[in-house]
Structures are given as C-alpha cells and as structure tokens.
Specification:
The radius of gyration is 15 Å and the shape is globular. It starts with 7 loop residues before the first strand and ends in a 5-residue tail after the last strand. β4, α3 and β5 form a beta-alpha-beta unit. It contains six helices and eight strands. Helices cover 34% and strands 19% of the residues. It has one domain: Rossmann fold (3-Layer(aba) Sandwich), CATH 3.40.50.300. An eight-stranded mixed sheet has the order 3-2-4-5-1-6-7-8, sandwiched between helices. It has 187 residues and is of the alpha/beta class.
Length: 187
C-alpha cells in the first residue's frame, strides 16, 4: 500500500475498468476519509452526496464543491479526500481550477490531506491535477488524444495504457519515475 498522507493522486480509465474498485480499496486502507460520491456508488464509506452533479449547472456544482471542501474537508482534515467523476467539476485548461480544488492541489500537504480525483479521461481534467500529482493510476484508456497526452507525460505510456487487459492498471509515481504494471484489485 502506498502512503497517501498529504499526497495527490489521480485515477483514470474507461467505464468498467476498475477505477471504483481501486478507490474503494484505498478508502478501506484509510478509515479517516471522505468521498465526494457523484454517482452514488460508495455506500458504506464516509461520503457526501452532491446535489448539483448530474449534468446540471457547472457553476452550481462548483459552488457546492467549494462549500463542502471549505466547510468540511479543510476543517475536519481527513487523511484522504476523493472526488469521483472530478471532470464534472474541474474542466481542462484553459478553464481555471475551482477555488477549493486549487487549495487542495496547492496546499493539501500543509493540511495533511491526501487528495484523489477519479475520471475516465486525463484530457477531461485540468492538467495541473494530472501533472502535479504524486501518483497516477491508469486503467485502460484508448482514446487517441488521451494516448497522445500520456505519451507526452512518459514516452510510450499512452500506448501501454491502451493495451491493458481488463482490470489491470499502471501505477506511476511521479516522485521517483517508477512505473509498475499492477494486477486487478480484489475487495
């Protein structure tokens, strides 16, 4: 198990590839957690069920997220905070990061909060979240633009990720450059 204390991570992969199973495994390893449960998939975990997440108004969704992070996460300082379907709240460059996400991305270390974002495609979220993460988890992602982007992060990464068997994933530790092929997670 990696140490997620005061670290940032992102999990990417196509629907049904294993992202939620990995997240549940990580949440079980860190009992003091919160998950921003956009698709209502994480019953039994410490979760917040947002009101404004389902194809609604982006501004309202970001306001709700900002309020939750500022009033709950930054006050309670859980060991781990995860946002499922983060691409519903954080748009790619050149869109600015929502205030709460900017705080977590820039200052989570000072708060002692581990922060994880989960999305299908790396090109659907702001590059600061991807490129400044300590850890990246990639399940199968086969879209051309995503593969090209991953190949820019690390030579051949996009090509490898596109060929992954179901439920397998690559773990990239940005701190050390370590890239490991991982077997499916079993709950």
């Amino acid at each position: 198990m990696i140490n997620l204390k005061a670290k940032r991570a992102m999990i990417f992969g196509i629907q049904g590839s294993g992202k939620s199973v990995l997240l549940k495994y990580l949440l079980r390893c860190v009992p003091n957690h919160y998950v921003y449960d956009t698709l209502l998939e994480h019953s039994g975990y410490n979760r917040y069920k947002p009101t404004h997440s389902q194809k609604g108004n982006l501004q309202l969704a970001q306001q709700e997220l900002n309020l939750f992070v500022n009033k709950v996460i930054l006050k309670e300082k859980p060991d781990l905070f995860a946002i499922d379907e983060i691409n519903r709240y954080v748009k790619p460059n050149p869109s600015p990061l929502p205030d709460s996400i900017m705080k977590l991305n820039d200052w989570n270390r000072h708060y002692g909060i581990g922060f994880i974002g989960i999305a299908r495609r790396p090109t659907q979220v702001h590059s600061d979240l991807v490129e400044l993460s300590h850890y990246l988890f990639f399940f199968r992602v086969g879209w051309r633009l995503d593969c090209e982007y991953l190949n820019q992060i690390r030579e051949g990464l996009g090509d490898k990720v596109a060929q992954l068997p179901q439920y397998h994933f690559y773990f990239l530790a940005n701190e050390t450059g370590e890239l490991k092929l991982m077997r499916p997670v079993i709950l």
